[in-house]
Amino acid sequence: MEIRAVTKNTGISVRKIRPIVDLVRGKKVEDALTILKYVPTPHARVVSKVVKSAAANAENNHQLAISDLRIASIYADEGPTMKRYRARSRGMASPILKRSSHITVIVTEQES
């Protein structure tokens, strides 16, 4: 049984999230949370919240033990981009792209 959790429109670029997501793909939930706790970037906290949410969904909605869960799939997709402009010299403007992302975590019960 697959249980999922999604966070949308995080204010973090996909390029910054994907290396963190790759660290925990396929790991047990408890191990993934330990890894994310010691990753030296503040964006790991956002990924950790989504993993905890997926584990809580499995525990509360499907009565599964957190110790039996593993991350079957985790990925970060590109979200909407806010477009802003900054004034430059000689009356020109340059674009500022504020990128966002959607993070999806799918957990399943560990095969024993």
List keywords for this structure.
3-stranded antiparallel β-sheet, 3 helices, 112 residues, elongated, 35% strand, Ribosomal Protein L22, Chain A, alpha+beta
Topology:
Elements: E1 3-10, H1 14-24, H2 29-37, H3 44-62, E2 69-78, E3 82-87, E4 93-98, E5 101-109
Antiparallel strand pairs: 1-5, 2-5, 3-4
Helix pairs in contact: 2-3
Describe the structure.
- It contains 3 helices and 5 strands.
- With 112 residues, the chain is α+β, with helices and mostly antiparallel strands.
- It has one domain (3-109): Ribosomal Protein L22, Chain A, CATH 3.90.470.
- Strands 1-5-2 form a 3-stranded antiparallel β-sheet.
- Helix 2 (29-37) packs antiparallel against helix 3 (44-62).
- The longest helix is centred in the middle third of the chain and has 19 residues, at 44-62.
- It is elongated, with a radius of gyration of 17 Å.
Q: Low-confidence stretches at least 5 residues in length (pLDDT < 50)? A: none
Give the class from helix and strand content and strand pairing. Answer: alpha+beta
Number of strands: 5
SSE ordering: EHHHEEEE
Q: How many discrete structural domains? A: 1
Which second-level CATH architecture applies? Alpha-Beta Complex
Within the largest sheet, what's the order of strands?
1-5-2
**Distance between the first and last residues' Cα:** 14 Å
Report the radius of gyration as a whole number of Å.
17 Å
Q: Output the number of helix runs.
A: 3
Name of the CATH homologous superfamily:
Ribosomal protein L22/L17
The whole-number mean of residue pLDDT values reads: 95
Kindly estimate the percentage of residues that lie in beta strands according to DSSP: 25-35%
For the sheet with most strands, the description reads:
3 strands, antiparallel
Percentage of residues in helical conformation: 25-40%
What is the CATH topology assignment? Answer: Ribosomal Protein L22, Chain A
Query: Which CATH class applies here?
Result: Alpha Beta
Shape descriptor: elongated
